Amino acid sequence: MKRPDINKTLRKAKTSLKRGQHKKAQELYNSILEAFPQNSQASEELRKLNIAQERNTSGEQLERRLQQLSDLYHQGNMTLVVERSNEIINEHPDSFLAWYWLGLSSIALGLLEQSATAFTKTIQLNPRFAPGFNNLGVVTKKLGHPLKAIDAFHQVLRLAPNDLEAICNLGNAYHAVGKLDEAIMRYEQALGIDPNHLKSLLNMAQTLSDLGHRVDALRKLDQALQIDPNSARAFNAMGAILRLLGRRDDAIIAFRAALNIDAGWSYPCTNLGTVYLESNMPEKAAEMFNRALHNEPNNSTAHNGLGTVFLKQKMLAEAEKAFRKAIAFQPDFTEAFCNLGSALGSQNRPEEAVKILAQALDLSPQHGLSQSKKLAIQASCCMWDNFWEEQGLLSSLGLSSDTCIDPFPLLSLEDNPKHHYLRSKQYAESKHAEPELTETVQAIKTSKRIRIGYFSADFYEHATMYLMARIFELHNTDEFEVYAYSIGPEKNDTMRNRLIKAVTVFDDVSGMSDKQIALIARQDGIDIAIDLKGYTEDARMGIFTHRAAPVQMTFLGYPGTLAMPC
Predict the structure, then answer these.
(1) CA 93 to chain centre
(2) Is the pLDDT of residue 40 over 90?
(3) What is the model's pTM?
């Protein structure tokens, strides 16, 4: 067999490598070594070629495995993504994409700390990988570090200035730190790049609402629904804003639309429950909170809402149980602690109530409603430990524009008419927003006599009736027709029967919404509507924001100002 020319064969092998003919080059190097086993140059070139082929094979395998991670992630198999990502990382610790998929799947599983670690490693390995910074921002914001999130999103925009997702996320982070104007600027920046960017429109609407520009917010949501008529999130946000505007009927329609699109979404359920409760429809409210719990048994908001329904219905043991469940699922739920304190106080368990309300204040030291309830319970039971120190808080409690507390418990705790007025004003503006029935009321005159309508939840054996009974009986029936609208429990006792005999019309409207009651009073031609409750228990002041009569007033039940414009 003829021995090969070494130099000529080496040149042919290099030419084959340049052409990508690795197998032919390998054969040429082997032919040299068969004839000249000690040839160091052919041996070294063959060694390099084998290493390169091994690396190529390993790289191809890694690429296939990373693609499998992507496929598994988009199939929703997050647990397996975490497992396979860790396997790759053990073999290839410098694979930034393996760390990235570990981060994404960890977010989906709620493993936020693990996710943050993975994304941090991702950007360490590849400092120019914008998605790594973006997702690091998302997870750090979820972990309660919005300022770190802002830094991460800015880094994304240094790498990719027109990244819509990062711009919108940056707006969300500014919103989280209270820089709402800056958030608006970022959403406008995103919409300048893509006017149809749905996420930016939705977030901008929420921010505008938080700034008090609710009509502008509704316009943005209208734009969002033109882009995507099936956006459950847009309908839910619209419902929330309509509720704040006092347009509860429209809010209900919007929340219902969101549920029709996404029947398994809990947010519209809990929002509907809240509106129904505010509209004095506790049965419907309970239905929606239970629906939310069917979809999401650990939903603390739904448990709290259901407890509020029970509290309104005087089902105190059930209310306590629901509030405790809410706290079990969300141990930092201040509102649930506050409501539990109310339930315990109503069960004549003041010591327990005060302890629970103290826990609420440990969680949120500025929670005015918990503070006012705690002070009121302590005063009513002569629990004076630390009372006088805490009473000093009254100089600011419930007075700022961003707080709302029930003004009634504080009437006896502070002798300051201006403060009582401001608390009532904040309470009225928060609880009784702009109503749906805003037109001027003209009473329907079917009689020459003046029609007076009295509204109360206490038309039975109650202090109000003992004080009012003779007044009802002594009205001049030649000049007045007297209507009594009961918004309280159904009773059949001496005082209820005495009232029915004394008035022209008795009407139990307790199961109706505030708006419906106002409409009935209008249809009855009431000239003067008189509230007998004020801000006491079971009050329904929403009736009067809907203008039940041309002249409206309050009498007897509440020893303070209501500060209501009507």
Answers:
(1) 39
(2) no
(3) 0.81
